[in-house]
Amino acid sequence: MENIKTCKKCGTIKVQSDFYLRDATCKECRKAAVRANRTANAEYYRAYDRARANNTDRVRARNEYAKTDQGKTAKAKAARINRSKTPEQVYARSVLSRAVHEWGMRRPDRCQHCGCECVPHGHHDDYTKPLDVMWLCVPCHAARHRELKQQRAA
């Protein structure tokens, strides 16, 4: 028979396997406390998670995983799902890519926003106009998407 224990938080009597090792609160209460803490300190944890994701060991592990069969399958599945959710974006990117690579459309060598020399990305404000793009460097392109996301949230 498994040992039984009483949760210090909810007072429920549960089996030992419903508790983490050396913890007086049950797993459900502990998980709820962690979720509440992350919600209360959301900005801190967002910054922490972003910084943690860029640790060299994590980047290396992600890159190694991406080279495995399982990683390739996961990436392909995610791409399929994304394409099915945003067909108008897929179409606009495809038309733009063909225009640049096959139809002679010239990609500028500078960002239209900051003017830095780079290989800019084509940013669509309206996906129904696939050739109407702003040519932006990676930082300006990311900033533009953040700006649009904030506008949608407001």
Task: Give a written overview of the molecule.
The protein has 154 residues and is mainly α. The protein has three domains: 1-54, no CATH class; 59-85; 87-153. It contains six helices and four strands. It has helices spanning 27-40, 42-53, 56-67, 69-85, 87-101, 138-153; strands at 4-6, 13-15, 121-124, 133-136. It has a two-stranded antiparallel sheet. It has a two-stranded antiparallel ribbon with strand order 3-4. Strand 3 and strand 4 form a beta hairpin.
Range of helix content: 55-70%
Contiguous uncertain segments of 5+ residues:
none
Shape: elongated
Structural class by secondary-structure content = mainly alpha
Largest sheet: 2 strands, antiparallel
The number of helical elements comes to 6
**In what order do the strands lie side by side in the largest sheet?**
1-2
Q: Strand fraction band?
A: 5-15%
The span between the termini is 57 Å
Radius of gyration: 24 Å
* Domain unit count: 3
Summarize model confidence as the mean pLDDT.
Answer: 91
* Total beta strands: 4
Spell out the blueprint of helices and strands.
Blueprint: E1 4-6, E2 13-15, H1 27-40, H2 42-53, H3 56-67, H4 69-85, H5 87-101, E3 121-124, E4 133-136, H6 138-153
Antiparallel strand pairs: 1-2, 3-4
Keywords:
3 domains, two-stranded antiparallel ribbon
